[in-house]
Amino acid sequence: MKISQMLEMLLSLPKTNFFNFSQLRIKDAIHLPILVSHRTKLKSLKGRIVIDGPIKFGQVRFGLKGAGSGTAYFKPIVIENHGTIVFQDAIFFRGVPNMHCFQG
User: Fold this and answer.
1) Tally of domains within the chain
2) Chain mean position to CA 50
């Protein structure tokens, strides 16, 4: 792992911990299955997130390297969750996506 990637992970650790422990059950959150970049904007976390399947470290990534060669790496991702988001496998969000989930 390069020094820049280690620095990115260290800067992202507080937001990653907050996101995991506020959205997942404690027994799942301790594995840190969702990694969230410090650049990611958390607009609303009123909904919930479900990981359907085995829990692995870093299987869902928001704004971190590991999703190929994204052209918009330094542009923030916005997460607004008012419903239920279900992840079934590893997925990486990188660049400019805005994730809006509403109940209904």
Assistant:
1) 1
2) 13
